[in-house]
Model the fold of this input.
Amino acid sequence: MVRFYLFLFLSLLVVTGLHAQCYKENHVFKDGEFLSYEVSYNWGPIWVDAGLVTFSIDQDKYAGKPAWHLKSSGKTYKSYDFFFKVTDYYDAWVDPDSFHPYEFRRSVSEGGYRLLNTLRYDRTGQTVYSSTKTNNNPVRFDTLKPGACVHNPLSAVYFARTLDISSLKRDARIPVTVLIDDSTYSIYIRYLGKEVVKNRDGQQYRCVKFSAKMVEGTIFRGDEDVMVWVTDDENRIPVYIEAKILVGSVKAYLKEMRGLRNPCSSLVKNP
Done:
């Protein structure tokens, strides 16, 4: 069984996950941005369009303070539900000036598995209070101290896009720390240079390419299992993602983008 939604989050996260850096400034995205991805799964010789993942950002309030509300959802298509139905929702609230996370919520329904997880951050961001409930088990509470500048999966997707990657050398390895539920994971990414990628809709984009060393477990073998292509412009939009998993392969294609902060200068114009 493939939790393709978690795969996509990790893939987007490791695009530029330089967690040794803290937030400086954002010239990449704005409220109103919307992205969607179609996820395809391969088992043997057959490729199946399994589901759709969306990301959006809106202005909001958190405890009376201005906030960005980051939202994402992942759902399998009805034609795929008979095999493994997925309905996931992610929400995060962050300070729009410092990008300090306030709260993160994850609601997961994947096959017969259910999970509700909430992460609440103290004012320094270095202590996180976690509550986790799976299926009919009791709620599990924990206090985490992951250190400064370590985000939840959703805030990290946006934070990572703001980081400067202009000085990276080919084959450079970058360590990444990921906080998911009540655990932290250490992986790395490798910068592989630049390529032109043709998307499913026929559009071509100049992209920056990365591979990622993933966590060995129920999804990945623990090798550099994931390849990610990101627009080589000021928007840093992931265009195409592919991964080898324990059972088959997964690909994610950019389906729609709107409300971008900057012109999509990476788009290759037809002659």
Q: What stands out?
A: The first helix runs from residue 4 to 13. The radius of gyration is 18 Å. DSSP finds three helices and 14 strands in the chain. The CA atoms of residues 151 and 260 lie 23 Å apart.
